[in-house]
Amino acid sequence: MKNSIVNRSVRWSFLAAVLILVTFMGRMHQIIKLYPPIDAFCPFGALESAWAFIRYQGFLKRIKWSSFILMFSAIGTALIFRRSFCGQICPLGFLQDIFSWMGRKIFRRRFELPLRVDRILRYVKYLILFAFTALAWKTLSLVIRPFDPWVAYHHIGSDELFTEYLVGTLILGLMLAGALFSDRPFCRYLCPMGGFLAIPSKIGLTRIKRHEDACTSCGFCDESCPMALSVSTIEEMRSAECISCGECVNACPEEGALEYSLVSRKRISPLAVTLGTVLILVLVLGGTTLNRSFVWKAESGLPKTAERLLRGPGRIGGDNTPLDIVQVFKIHPAYFVQTYGLETEEQFYRTLEELEINPEQLSSEIERLYSEAGLDASKPGGGGCSDH
User: Taking the model in full, what pTM does it have?
Assistant: First the structure.
């Protein structure tokens, strides 16, 4: 029992960390153009852009090398730990887990579709995978974007949420509402990336095995499975629907009744699957970050003191220079000549503190100038651009 608590705590900690990080990155893109769009951190974007890369040696708009790096990382984890990317890393899956946890507290039970309906609906994600990948390759565009609940999630609070991303927003709402009653509905029936990872996971090196002589058929493993798989009746879990979350193994009260094992039959713990999956991701992202293939943020060409101004005039400080203000907010140099009496070029390189210019007063002035021009001063760096 103690090991189960540790296993769950570690897994949920990593999932929470990924969700927080990716949410931060998506939010920062809405504020500062320096941060790539969320599509650049989605492995399915690499599938959509694969033909463009093969045929034209280029990427679809909003797709970066990071999309391909994440896709190959996900494939790598699938070849070893099966669909552990879905169960151990995916932030959209974890978002559903949070709502499912709340649903359990409210309703004290799970609601499942009839088995026959459930089996048919599970094939929908493969149709979505084929349809949207084919359309993306034909049109050379991210066709799935307006329908993607993950994109909609990152546009919460934006003007496009109920216009350009209306369908995605509706799917997001239905997905989270559904998660209150049933575990991971989007993962089960609609996720194209899950459908894709199901393919290499069939030859993954790990399996969940049930030892009938130790099993008491208590059913705890079935109740804990977020993909609603029948674990208590199998000898070895071969279903591509298994996301290698390890919840069934953690829930099993009988020693040795249910366990992870390698194809070599060597037993491993759910914690090893979690740490192994995370290690693969960390090593790949760490290495590609060091060689600058994986880009977390674009280079602005501005000094660090000026780069922070891309978040708005409220970040103006005494260590900024008039030149910083001119470059970032596109304020004409004549403004400083007329308002603050700057007479030489050298003065534009001196700090506001040295020039005895009040940063708060200057910030208010820039807010006023932008307002008079009908512009948003909080988006001088392009945060308000159409490439969301």
Answer: 0.85
User: What's the rounded Cα separation, in Å, for the pair 80 and 197?
Assistant: 12
Helix (H, G, I), strand (E, B) or coil at 260: strand
Q: Rounded distance, CA 258 to CA 246, Å?
A: 10
Quote the CA–CA distance of 259 and 209 in Å, as a whole number. 6
Q: Which pair of structure tokens corresponds to residue 334? A: 């004549």
Q: How far apart are CA 203 and CA 78, in angstroms?
A: 8
No. of H helices and E strands in the chain? 19, 3
In sequence order, which residues have a C-beta less than 8 Å from that of residue 66 and are 6 or more positions away?
A: 36, 40, 41, 288, 293, 294, 295
Q: What is the pLDDT of residues 47-101, one digit of tens each?
A: 999 999 999 999 999 999 999 999 999 999 999 999 999 999 999 999 999 999 9
Q: Which of 9-18, 238-247, 255-264 has the lowest mean pLDDT?
A: 255-264
Whether 381 shows a pLDDT value over 50: the answer reads no
- Mean pLDDT for 353-375 is 92
The backbone region for 375, taken as left when phi is positive above 0, alpha when psi lies in -120 to 50, beta otherwise, is: beta
**What's the pLDDT score for residue 301?**
76
Determine contact, residues 146/72, Cβ cutoff 8 Å: no
Q: What is the pLDDT of residue 379?
A: 66
DSSP 180: T
Q: Is 179 left (phi over 0), alpha (psi -120 to 50) or beta?
A: alpha
Long-range contacts of 356-361 (CB under 8 A, 24+ apart): 357/322, 359/316, 359/317, 359/318, 359/320, 360/316
* H/E stretch holding 79: helix 65-81
Q: How big, in percent rounded to 5, are the helix, strand and coil portions of the chain?
A: 60, 5, 40
At 386 the pLDDT is: 41
Ramachandran angles phi, psi of 34, nearest 5°:
-60, -30
